[in-house]
Structure formats: structure tokens, C-alpha cells
């Protein structure tokens, strides 16, 4: 990471950006292989739009033009702010363009988002998210909840990181179970259970007690939240709870179905975990979190869920399901731990040496001829001694140096030097583009 | 463009985004062929950094956290704002990372920028710029001023737009000429001449008079500003002015050199135009503007220049030269006039039909097998009648529909239907990816 005077705003050196671009390209490819169309939404939304979900309000950056009066700007109900996720803007985009879109609408969106919070370790105030969502017009069949997990499992498995685990739960299970055991404050229960990872069962129990949950309810909820495993394990443990409700059974049906299908299509990556709560109110079905093996302290790097009514114009509702990758958090870890590195910090494959400044035009002609054939080329910045020009290539990781007078090209990594014709010469495949080495 | 309730913040429909991505990809490829490395800088800078150039101060968006007091935030000297170009953040990035970068540093940067101005026709408050800059440590040879023009000429000529003209001038000519004719207020002269396109010679003359320029000086300046053409034409017209100064000759030498070299390397795209002034104070050598034939009313879609001291840490100066493409303005015109259109609005090549919901898994297996071979596939959203499933493909522009039971695939554009094996079938090349049709 570059030394930046503003914490929470990550920037990479050119060689880090090569790795980030590699990761972004893998993500895009994976999404497109599965038929997701790309869109971008503006970075700026009216505050009224951003505040529809009260919960995240404290993390928003508001905008004012330099010439505007600060107090008047703050009182203006049409004041603008930076988006803090890609879901809220997407909901607005769907409503605005519903007449022009084809449903179910499968889109991906890779953009920066901003949160005006105090930065902590690994928490950024500006970061890139990569989201997929599938939105239906009026209804959306359950199989799409399987689909997004399958896509994300494949995409994340294509990245230069250790194996990932997508942990899934279903809101209907939690809600149905609450009904069965007589808990009415489902939101309160969800908020407490969401902290199980951080503060443990005892801490969650205490918080529930503070919210007025009876001892029996607390025990029952914690019992449920400790259930984990594959389809069969989840089934038998939930059966052992001996609780029944229609909603619970519906949720169980969906969760078992999801676990069974994902085990077939992306084996070993998806597991059930009834502690997964996800804070946001609007989830109504499957919820997802993702951890990277050995990097659990990163938190969830890909989360989301099913929502029945995020987008609605009053008459019509657009249910959806989506997941979001925290790209910057992931890239930051990959770079910090050297999980992937680039063979060079420039795209250049060939540096054409310059014999003397009077003959720079000749070197330009060679570079242009290579570029015309799709080979990234550059001319040496100085007509210095060839040893220095080779060093200029080496500093940037450029593998080939072309000598115009000799009509020869040298691979400065292998040391091989051969005669070459600019009209036909090809680099060895492994040197054509920057290579990403991974830590596996 | 999608109907958006906020003017000045462009958003595209998925089919428009396909065209934009095509244009962005052409730009990236062109930059990388010429050895430019990609970086991104954060969108947010301290206001003190943004205001170093006073001129654009009125167009800045300032930020405040929702919980912050508006008045206190406005008084905080460390207040943050959104960047309004990519040059100022790049200068900061170079200074912060000077120890880790290799000079001359050639970078490209494609990001959104924001200007808090009232939107006019074609003026956006949020838009994408694509910049190249070459920055030296202490010094930067003139040939890089030729290089950026060559790169931009090639990149812009690869886009689905009519032929472009890069118009160039050299600040040393303007300044040297001012010296020769006794004009001391060079900045004032530049500001007035910059409006020649908009208000004509008469208007510029009037503005100069208001600034106190004598009649003779006004005439001399307007005479110079009307000089246009290739190397020989510029040379003879400037000679006819019969003015001499060392700086003028230096600038003429550079301009002639640039016009001669570009005429050889990118014939017919670069022309001299001594009216090009560019408002910004920091340019010190070549300045560039670019118009699209038949779309002159778009204004300049790619501008920039040579600057000797944008980045400096007091001890050391980093001179540079750069140009910036106004991508959103260009894309907006391309979409509005249909200069390029996409054959489909999804990446999907094959829609696998679903015989009935009980057999969806079979369709998923076919889609997964195609994806594993790099072919973008999707399953039909509903197990409706095949006619309806074909219609679902047609609505999205998906060229192929796969029928699992029959083991056949139909090209719904040509109508051809053939037996197909999922392990070996390949789409016709022209249907593999969305095709961009251009208006040429």
C-alpha cells in the first residue's frame, strides 16, 4: 500500500494495481459466464434515498458545493450524499428503468462505495464492492437463491486466495423457530445472534437478557444458533430441537435444498450455519456470509441474502437476491501477505533500445510495428549505454530488450539473445503479459 | 440514458453499458500497448489539496459525515472533498510514492470525477475521465510531448466515432510572441484567446480592450491566434508576422517537430492551431485539444498539456505531460446518436431451455458444462412453453437456445437448429460475445 496521509482510503502501487486488475477481471469473467449484465449507477444519491434504511445512517458522507451555505445545505431535504453500498442505488435504478429492463434482471456492478466511519484495522472509508443481484418483477423463484451461491463459490474459488466457505442460513428458520418457542422480538434476537462470532454465546445471552428475553428463550435461541453442517447434519439437529412451525419447515426445506444442490455443483464450499443472522431488516429468505480459510479475522468477504421488498413503487414489488464481494478488503490482504504478485509493474513486453537520440525515430518505428501486432512496447527513456537501458527494463520487469542496430532481441530474464524480424517475432507466451504468481 | 431524477449524473441501460465497456476496453488496450501502467487514486482529497489551483474552486463538492456539525465541518481545514480531475490527485500520488516509483513514470487512470456545477447540455456533474501522463524526476525530454499525442491519436481512432483532429499549440510560442510584441499580461491574453471559438475574434478583441490591451497588441495577438495548419504552413505564417524572440523560436522548434513527427506516425490527425490556449496556468509547453468531425459542438473531448511544476516537494520538481479523454461526454453522444450499438444486452451466448421445473437440474448441468468451457450460459427463467423460452432469449438478444431433451441447439437469429454435444459444441465466432455495430 502506498503511504497515504488519509487512513481508510487505500491506494496501491502500480504492481499492486496489476494484481487488483487481475482479481477484478476474474470476478467479471465469472459473473459474465453466468449471464449477469454489467451496469453502473451514479455514486451520488439524494439523502432521502440513502436514509430509507435507518440503520446505516451514521456512516453516510453528505455533499455540499463549496459556494453553498453549510447550514442551508444541511437543511435542504434534497441534499446529496455518497452511496454506502450498491444495493440501495440498484433498487432505485430498477424502479426508474423498470419499463426498459427484462425481468428476471441479472446484473453485476463493481464500484466504489464510501462510509464516513472512523477507520479501524481493515475497515476502509472508500472501497470497491462487486455485487450480483437477480431481481424479479412481482415474484422470484427460490432457485435463484441457489444460483447466487453457486456463482459466488465459483468466482471466489478462481481468485488467488485460500479456499472459501460460504455459510448460509434462512430467515424463515429463525423466524419460524422464534414463533415456535414463543419469541416475539425476532429483530432483537437477530441483532444479538449476529454478534455470536464476536462476543460468544455467553455475551449473546447477556445481551438477550438485557433486551428482556426469558432464560428459556435465550437457551433455545442459542441452541439453534449453534447448529452447523451439511444438509443431513442440519436436518437431524433441527429435528432434535423438537420444535414445529410452518415457517420453520418452509425455511428448512429451502436450506436443505440449497445445501444439497450446492454440494453437487460446487462441492465443499457451502455449509449451513444457523447463527448467520445478517443485521439488515430487509432479508426474508436465504442469508449468506463467506470466510477465507486461515483469514477468518478478515470477517465476511462476501455476504448477502434474499429480500422480498427492497424495491417497490407501491403498486408493484421487485423481490431479489444478491451477494456482494468486499474487493478492497480482499485485495488489501492479498497484497499485504503476498498471496499474489505480478511479474512486472508495467504492461510493456518489449523495451526498444535507443542507439542515440538522433536515431530515436528508428526505435519508435520498431515499437510502433510491434504495437500494430498487439505487442506492448516502449522505447528506452534515454539513449544511455545499453547496460543502463537494460537496467531500465529490469527495474520495470520488462522481459525483452530490442536492439535496433543489431536487429536482435534479448530476453533479459533467461539471457537468450536472438536475431528477430519485427514483422514476425513473437514473445514467448509466458512473457507476453504480466504474470500473476500465486502463493499456492 | 435512463430517466434519472438527478440531472448531470448519467446512467446507462445494460445495452448502453456494453457499448461503454467496449469503448473503455479499447482505451485501456491502446494505453497498455504503449507501456502505460494503470493506477487508481482515492476519490477523496483534503480540500487544501483540491484548492491549490484556485480557478476550479467553485466546482468542488465538499464532504461531511451525517453526524458532524455542518458549521464546524465547514471550518475544519482538513475537510475532505471529491476530486474534480485526475491530475491533482496524481500529482499527490507521485509525491507520496516517489521512492517506490520508477521514472519516467507512465501511468493511465480511468475514474469518475465530480464537479458541483449547474448541469448544462452535455455537462455532467459526475463523469468518467481517461488520463495518461508521463512524469519525470527533475526533467522530462520533449519527445514525450510527441508521444502522448501519438497515443491519443491512435486510441481515439480506434473508437466508434468519426475522425478526430488533435489541435496543438505551444505555450512558449504564445509567451515568446507576447514578449516580442510587448504584451506583459500573458495570462490575460491566454484567458481571452481561449474564448476565440466561442465568442469570435471581435468578442476576444473587446475583452482584451477591457483588460487594457492596446489596439496594436490586440491586433497582433489575434493575427497570431488565427494561424493554423501543418508544419510548413505554421512556419511560413509565423515568419510572416516578422516577430522574433528566443522563446518564440524554441516553441516554434518544438511545435514544428511535433507536427512533423505526428504526421509520420499518425497521419492526418494532428494539426497546429495557435489559438489553442487552455485556461490552466500550469501548462508550460505543448497544449492539446481534440474535436470530433461533425461533432464540434461537443467541445474538446481530449485535452491536456505539458507542465513543468505541477508536482513539487520543494526540493525536487516532477515535470509532466498528459492528456485526458472525457469518456462520459463521448459515450453519451455515441449512445444518443447510435454511433455504436450492441447486439445484445447480456453477456449470455446460450440460454438452456428448461423442460419442466423438475428437470431444471439437468439444464443447470448443461449450462455449467458450457461455462466450464468458457461459454457464457444461462438457464431459462421459467419452464414455460418452448416458444416462450425462445422469446425470453430473443428479448435479451441471446443468440442460441439449447434444448436438453432433443440434444439440439438452435440459433434463433439464423433459425438453424442442429444436434449438439455439450463437450464439444462451439458457437459461431460472431455470436460468442456481444457484437458492437458501428455507424461507419
Report on this model:
Chains A, B: Residues 1-347 form the Aminoacyl-transfer RNA synthetases class-II family profile domain. Chains A, B: Keywords: Aminoacyl-tRNA synthetase, ATP-binding, Cytoplasm, Ligase, Nucleotide-binding, Protein biosynthesis. Chains A, B: This is Histidine--tRNA ligase. Chains A, B: Pfam families: HGTP_anticodon, tRNA-synt_His. Chains A, B: GO terms for molecular function: ATP binding; histidine-tRNA ligase activity. 2 copies of one chain form a homodimer. Chain A has 440 residues and is of the alpha+beta class. The first copy, chain A, folds into 2 domains: 12-38 and 88-339, Bira Bifunctional Protein, Domain 2 (BirA Bifunctional Protein, domain 2), CATH 3.30.930.10; 348-435, Rossmann fold (3-Layer(aba) Sandwich). The first copy, chain A, is built from 15 helices and 19 strands. In chain A, the strands form 4 sheets. The first copy, chain A, has a 9-stranded mixed sheet with strand order 1-5-6-12-11-10-7-9-8. A 5-stranded mixed sheet of chain A has the order 15-14-16-17-18, with helices on both faces. In chain A, a hairpin with a 4-residue loop joins strand 11 (302-312) and strand 12 (317-326). In chain A, helix 6 runs antiparallel to helix 11 and helix 10 (231-241) runs antiparallel to helix 11. Chain A is elongated, with a radius of gyration of 27 Å. At the A-B interface, helix 1, strand 1, strand 3, helix 3 and strand 4 of A face helix 1, strand 1, strand 3, helix 3 and strand 4 of B. Strand 3 of chain A pairs antiparallel with strand 3 of chain B, so a sheet runs across the interface.
Amino acid at each position: 500500500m502506498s503511504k497515504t496521509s488519509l487512513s481508510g482510503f487505500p491506494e496501491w502501487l502500480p504492481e499492486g494495481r496489476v494484481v487488483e486488475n487481475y482479481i477484478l477481471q476474474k470476478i467479471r469473467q465469472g459473473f459474465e459466464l453466468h449471464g449477469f449484465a454489467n451496469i453502473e449507477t451514479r455514486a451520488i444519491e439524494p439523502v432521502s434515498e440513502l436514509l430509507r434504511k435507518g440503520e446505516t445512517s451514521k456512516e453516510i458522507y453528505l455533499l455540499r458545493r463549496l459556494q453553498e451555505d453549510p447550514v442551508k445545505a444541511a437543511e435542504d431535504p434534497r441534499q446529496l450524499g455518497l452511496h454506502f453500498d450498491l444495493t440501495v442505488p440498484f433498487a432505485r435504478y430498477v424502479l426508474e428503468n423498470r419499463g426498459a429492463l427484462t425481468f428476471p434482471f441479472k446484473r453485476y456492478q463493481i464500484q466504489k462505495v464510501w462510509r464516513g466511519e472512523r477507520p479501524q484495522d481493515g475497515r476502509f472509508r472508500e472501497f470497491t464492492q462487486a455485487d450480483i443481484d437477480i431481481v424479479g418483477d412481482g415474484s422470484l423463484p427460490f432457485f435463484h437463491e441457489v444460483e447466487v451461491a453457486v456463482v459466488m463459490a465459483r468466482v471466489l474459488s478462481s481468485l488467488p486466495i485460500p479456499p472459501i466457505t460460504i455459510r448460509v442460513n434462512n430467515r424463515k428458520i429463525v423466524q419460524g423457530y422464534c414463533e415456535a418457542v414463543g419469541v416475539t422480538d425476532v429483530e432483537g434476537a437477530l441483532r444479538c445472534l449476529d454478534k455470536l462470532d464476536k462476543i460468544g454465546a455467553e455475551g449473546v445471552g447477556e445481551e438477550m437478557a438485557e433486551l428482556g428475553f426469558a432464560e428459556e428463550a435465550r437457551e433455545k435461541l442459542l441452541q439453534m444458533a449453534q447448529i452447523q453442517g451439511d444438509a443431513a447434519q442440519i436436518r437431524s439437529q433441527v429435528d432434535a430441537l423438537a420444535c414445529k412451525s410452518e415457517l420453520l419447515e418452509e425455511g428448512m426445506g429451502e436450506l436443505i435444498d440449497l445445501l444439497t444442490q450446492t454440494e453437487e455443483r460446487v462441492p465443499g464450499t457451502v455449509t449451513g450455519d444457523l447463527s448467520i443472522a445478517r443485521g439488515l431488516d430487509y432479508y426474508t429468505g436465504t442469508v449468506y456470509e463467506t470466510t477465507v480459510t486461515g483469514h477468518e479475522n478478515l470477517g465476511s468477504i462476501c455476504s448477502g441474502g434474499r429480500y422480498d421488498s427492497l424495491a417497490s413503487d407501491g403498486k408493484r414489488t421487485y423481490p431479489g437476491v444478491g451477494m456482494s464481494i468486499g474487493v478492497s478488503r480482499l485485495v488489501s490482504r492479498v497484497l499485504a501477505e503476498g498471496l499474489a504478485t505480478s511479474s512486472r509493474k508495467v504492461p510493456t513486453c518489449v523495451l526498444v533500445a535507443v542507439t542515440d537520440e538522433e536515431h530515436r525515430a528508428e526505435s519508435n518505428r520498431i515499437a510502433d510495428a510491434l504495437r500494430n501486432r498487439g505487442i506492448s512496447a516502449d522505447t528506452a527513456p534515454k539513449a544511455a549505454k545499453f547496460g543502463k537501458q537494460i537496467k531500465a527494463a529490469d527495474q520495470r520487469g520488462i522481459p525483452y530488450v530490442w536492439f535496433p542496430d543489431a536487429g536482435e532481441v534479448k530476453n533479459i530474464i533467461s539471457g537468450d539473445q536472438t536475431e528477430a524480424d519485427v514483422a514476425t517475432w513473437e514473445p514467448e507466451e509466458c512473457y507476453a503479459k504480466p504474470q500473476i504468481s500465486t502463493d499456492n
